[in-house]
Design a protein that fits this description.
By secondary structure, the protein is an alpha+beta fold. It is 37% helix and 21% strand. It contains 13 helices and ten strands.
Length: 401
C-alpha cells in the first residue's frame, strides 16, 4: 500500500465526519529521526493537517500529511534566511499556506466552517494574504514582527494595550515547565500589517497587498510561578474580535493546538517510539511514519472518548471484523467487582478503549488510562489479531489439502 492510497482513505473518512461541523485544522511539523538517519545527517519531517471538532476537541482525522526530507542544518528547521531569492512557491515554508488552501476541501464537502490554527513558524505574510476567503485562522505571531512605521514591533504595540478582561487556562507541561493553571489578562484590537520590505523577488513582493487588516488578541499571564517565564501569546485572526467573549474564544481555539503535539508525543517516546525503528531506507520509513501517525490519532480518539462522553462509534478506530476478538478479550478481562466491568455498549469506541486500557495494564481503580497505556493495549490487541489471522489461514489451507 502506498502513501497516497493511505492518505486518500484517511481523507475520505475525515471529510465524511466533518460534515456539518465547525472544525479546526491544526498543523505542525515534527522530525522523525532514528539511529540510521542521525548517522547519515538526514531526517524525515512530517507536516500533518489534523482536523478536530471545535466544540468537543475530538480528533476527527487527518486532512493531509506532507513528508519533508532535510539534510544538514535544515534538519533543525528552516536554515535559510527569510530574505532569499528563492520564490515563495518553491519554499518548504509554503506548506503552511498549502494546508490553509486545502481546508477549502472540507467547506466544499459540507463542513460548516474551518479555522486554521498554527504556531509562530507559520507567521508568514503570504499565509495571511492568500488564505481562502471562507477559511478562518487563529495564528500565533512572533512578537518581533514589524508593524506599521509608527507602531514598531508587535510586542511594542501589544505592550501599550490596556487589559480588557481576565480568563483562566490550563497550561500543559512543556520543556522545563510543569503543567499549571494560569490567569491571563486579555487585550484585543485591530491592526494593520504592512507588506514585508524585501530586497529580492520584487515582482513577487509587489503582487502582495500593501497591508492586511487583522485582529490581534494578546493573552499574557499575570501570576507565573517563581522562576518561570510568564505565558505570552500574540494571536492574529481574520475573524472580527470586538468583544471580550470573542477574544477569549480565540485563545480557547489556539489552546486546542496542543492536540497535535499530543499526537506527536504518542508517536514517539510517550507511545509507539517510532524513532527506535531500525529502518534504513527512506520509503519504508515514510510508510511506517504515516501509519504510526494515523494510529496515534486513533489512540488520541480513544483517550478523548475513554469515558464515553464523545459518544463515538466503534468503527471510528476499529474494523467491523474486530468485534468478535474485542468481545473475547472483554470476557477475559472483566473482573467480579462492578468497577471491573466494562460499562460501555459493545458498538461504542469507549467499549474498545476500556479493553485497550485493560490490555495495557490499567487496573480499573486508579486514574484514567493515558496514551502510553492505550498504546500498549492497542499493540497487544493487534499482535493477537495477527496471530488469529495466521491461524485462520492455516485452517483454510488444511481444509483444502
Amino acid at each position: 500500500m502506498t502513501q497516497d492510497v493511505v492518505l486518500e482513505q484517511e481523507l475520505a473518512r475525515t471529510i465524511e465526519r466533518s460534515a456539518g461541523k465547525h472544525v479546526l485544522l491544526l498543523q505542525d511539523t515534527s522530525e522523525i529521526k532514528n539511529h540510521y538517519q542521525t548517522r547519515a545527517g538526514t531526517n524525515l519531517s512530517l507536516h500533518p493537517s489534523l482536523i478536530v471538532d471545535r466544540e468537543t476537541g475530538f480528533p476527527i482525522g487527518l486532512l493531509d500529511c506532507l513528508m519533508l526530507e532535510r539534510k544538514g542544518k535544515q534538519a533543525k528547521g528552516e536554515a535559510k534566511p527569510r530574505n532569499t531569492s528563492v520564490p515563495f512557491e518553491h519554499k518548504q515554508s509554503k506548506r503552511w499556506l498549502n494546508a490553509m488552501v486545502r481546508a477549502q476541501t472540507l467547506i466544499d464537502h459540507g463542513a460548516s466552517s474551518v479555522t486554521c490554527v498554527a504556531d509562530r513558524e507559520a507567521d508568514i505574510y503570504e499565509c495571511y494574504a492568500y488564505c481562502p476567503q471562507n477559511v478562518d485562522f487563529v495564528q500565533r505571531a512572533d512578537g518581533r514582527r514589524r508593524m506599521g512605521r509608527d507602531e514598531g514591533r508587535l510586542e511594542q504595540l501589544a505592550a501599550a494595550l490596556k487589559p480588557q478582561g481576565l480568563m483562566q487556562l490550563d497550561l500543559p507541561s512543556g520543556p522545563g515547565r510543569k503543567a499549571r493553571v494560569c490567569q491571563l489578562e486579555i487585550c484585543f484590537t485591530q491592526v494593520s500589517m504592512p507588506r514585508p520590505a524585501r530586497r529580492s523577488n520584487q515582482e513577487e513582493l509587489h503582487a502582495l497587498p500593501r497591508e492586511i487588516k487583522l485582529d490581534l488578541v494578546v493573552a499574557r499571564e499575570t501570576n507565573p510561578p517563581p522562576g518561570q517565564s510568564a505565558a505570552m501569546w500574540y494571536l492574529l485572526t481574520n475573524k472580527r474580535v470586538q468583544t471580550l467573549e470573542q477574544a477569549i474564544d480565540s485563545v480557547l481555539i489556539y489552546r486546542q493546538r496542543w492536540t497535535i503535539e499530543q499526537v506527536f508525543r504518542t508517536m514517539k517516546t510517550k507511545g509507539f517510539d517510532i524513532e527506535a525503528s531500525q529502518i534504513q531506507d527512506d520509503q519504508p520509513l515514510k510508510i511506517l511514519a504515516l501509519i504510526t501517525l494515523i494510529t496515534a490519532v486513533r489512540i488520541m480518539q480513544m483517550v478523548k472518548d475513554r469515558d464515553g462522553a464523545a459518544n463515538q462509534p466503534l468503527t471510528l478506530a476499529f474494523e467491523p471484523e474486530d468485534a468478535p476478538l474485542l468481545r473475547a478479550f472483554n470476557e477475559e478481562l472483566e473482573g467480579k467487582t462492578l468497577k471491573q466491568q466494562n460499562p460501555y455498549p459493545p458498538d461504542t469506541l469507549a467499549y474498545a478503549a476500556w479493553i485497550m486500557a485493560r490490555l495495557g495494564g490499567w487496573n480499573c481503580y486508579y486514574g484514567n488510562p493515558g496514551p502510553i497505556t492505550l498504546c500498549r493495549g492497542y499493540t497487544e490487541f493487534n499482535k493477537t489479531k495477527a496471530r488469529v489471522g495466521v491461524i485462520k489461514k492455516l485452517e483454510i489451507l488444511s481444509e483444502n489439502v
